[in-house]
Amino acid sequence: MKKRPLRIKDIAEILQISVSTVSRALRDTYDVNPETKEKVLALANQLKYKPNFNAAALASGNTKNIGVVIPFITNYYFSTVISGIQEEAYTNGYNIILLVTNDSSERELSMIKNLSVTSLDGLLVSISSNSVMSNHFQELIEEGVPLVFFDRVPDDIVASKVLQDDFSGAFQVTEHLILHGYTKIAHIAGSEHLSFTQRRLQGYVSALEKYDLPVRKEWIIYSGFSQQCGESDMNILLNMKEVPDAVFAVNDRKAVGAIQALKKRQIKVGSEFGVVGFTNDPISTIIDPALTTMEEPAFEIGKMSCKLLIKHITNKHFLPKEIVLPGRLIIRDSCLGTSSSLID
Q1: How far apart are CA 206 and CA 283, in angstroms?
Q2: In CATH, what number is assigned to the domain containing residue 70?
Q3: 157-200, pLDDT tens digit by residue?
């Protein structure tokens, strides 16, 4: 079996000092006690430690390049986030380099492990939907790499994060359905592993509980984020013995798929069956009827993420910070209401 290479973390554990102290000692920075530095260098030499040049290059903070790890590039939401990142980066003299994972955790891991030497000052990351391991990011942080997560963020890492208020947004769109008379509301969710999927689920559940409506597990379906997944999920619901009268989709693409499934069965969307989404993708105004949705502050998330990362790059002692931005309910015709609507 191939032996695992020695890491900075191993040296820190042997000497019982912090990973950041070892990292600074190996980089010969001024703020390390000379005696400590001598111990670190001696042990590193004794153990034949070979530095991770990729991490060292990331931590050096002098290339004026920022890496952006994203699941998709053609997706409306992520393209809007990138626009926000680019504007903030350009204003501060940075370039951005896109690393697209195609929503694959394997590709994500490979990209992080093989970062280009001396090419980046820091990373902005939105993890893939099937990421269940985050050790590769934790190791970068421990080695002093500036890193900020946005939108799809891991819960098990202490780092700066920027995201929308998924709970409140999901609560509002579900409550909107309830106030318009829908009482049997299903939820077609995203990947169960993602924290924002769970936060939107919690918002949906809380709205149902507020109005004493049942939370039925069979009406909560996890799958992907595509239009095809939305259509497939909706067909599953429509084939059940007891069919819901409305659905909250985790994003607009899935909501559009749900509308297509309903229309194929000649079910009138908006009156007979309510549909709401989440994003305010341009497709939400093209589909007929137009989709009620929660608009995500994608551009602002991009700008704020980049602003936070630059603070980490320029100030190594800047503490991790989590920023949650509110969304905005956009009311259209996909849930006009039933005869029992609570809205006049």
Answers
A1: 28
A2: 3.40.50.2300
A3: 999 999 999 999 999 999 999 999 999 999 999 999 899 999 99
Burial class of residue 305 in the structure, from the number of CB atoms within 10 Å of its CB (0-12 exposed, 13-18 middle, 19+ buried): buried
pLDDT of 2 higher than 50: no
- Is there a contact between 248 and 215 (Cβ–Cβ < 8 Å)? no
Q: Which of 253, 310, 298, 326 is nearest to 150 (CA)?
A: 298
Instruction: Please check whether residues 25 and 80 belong to one and the same domain.
Output: no
Q: What is the pLDDT of residues 13-30, one digit of tens each?
A: 898 988 888 887 887 776
Q: Does 1 reside within a domain?
A: no
CB 177 within 8 A of CB 329: no
Burial of 147 (0-12, 13-18, 19+ CB in 10 A): buried
